[in-house]
Amino acid sequence: MTETAGRRGRPRTFDRGAALAAATRLFWERGYAATSIGELTEAMGIRPGSLYAAFGDKRSLFREVVADYARSPNAGFVGVALAEEPTAHRAIARILREAAANYADPAHPGGCLIITAATNTGPQDAEVADFLRELRNTNLGVLQERLERARQDGELPADVNPRALAHYVATVVQGMSQRARDGASAAELAEVAELALAAWPGPRR
After folding, report:
1. Which residues of 10-30 are buried (b: 16+ CB within 10 A; e: fewer)?
2. According to the model, what pLDDT value does residue 11 have?
3. Which of 83, 109, 144, 181 has the fewest CB atoms below 10 angstroms from its CB?
4. How many H helices and E strands in the chain?
5. Residue 2's pLDDT band (boundaries 50, 70, 90)?
6. pLDDT number for residue 12
């Protein structure tokens, strides 16, 4: 989809999807705070006036980037696994294994945008940090609900704490994201995934 934005009476047409993809990569590589409007407009191939006209301010652009990223396979694999796998163990195993492959994929920046983009934000960016924290906590809640159902269905022992198990899985996933940022390979992250799965407290189906 293309959009036209005027500047000094001359229309400027650009591909909104391509511009959004360029902004996503820049935010993913550098984080929110370290990415300037000038760097964004250069990467997106548009002028500042076009950015503000099409996306609003930097914060609004970032929110659209995150929404688009969350729908992509780079982040959406978590929800897909929870929806498609018949057991909690298979869902968690799929999430961890796909995270290992995805986070270290050289086709895009390492790790997860939602986990890493708010690193080193200052007080002026507290709203962005809170926004990403809320997303992560929402995802944690979805994971906990799935594990609670697994305990109710007898897949997990009655003495298992679904909240603690959800936090454990989320901590492993977030740690894998950071390790990918530090250069860990997909094979190395896959080893971490398998070690984490070895701690699963119920039947491994």
Report:
1. eebebeeeebbbbbbebbbbb
2. 46
3. 83
4. 10, 2
5. low
6. 53
Q: Which two tokens stand for residue 158?
A: 């009655």
The secondary structure element, H or E, covering residue 16 is helix 16-30
- Of residues 79 and 14, more confidence is placed in 79
Instruction: Give the bridge partners for 15, in sequence order.
Output: 2
Query: Is 23 within 8 Å of 34 (Cβ atoms)?
Result: no
pLDDT score recorded for residue 9: 45
Spatial distance between the Cα atoms of 146 and 148, rounded to a whole number of angstroms: 5
- Quote the tokens at residue 205: 């189906």
Contacts with 185 (C-beta within 8 Å, 6 or more apart), sequence order: 104
The span from the CA of 37 to the CA of 56, in Å, is 12
Q: In whole angstroms, how far apart are CA 33 and each of 48, 87, 121?
A: 18, 39, 5
| Beta strands, E only, the chain | 2-7, 10-15
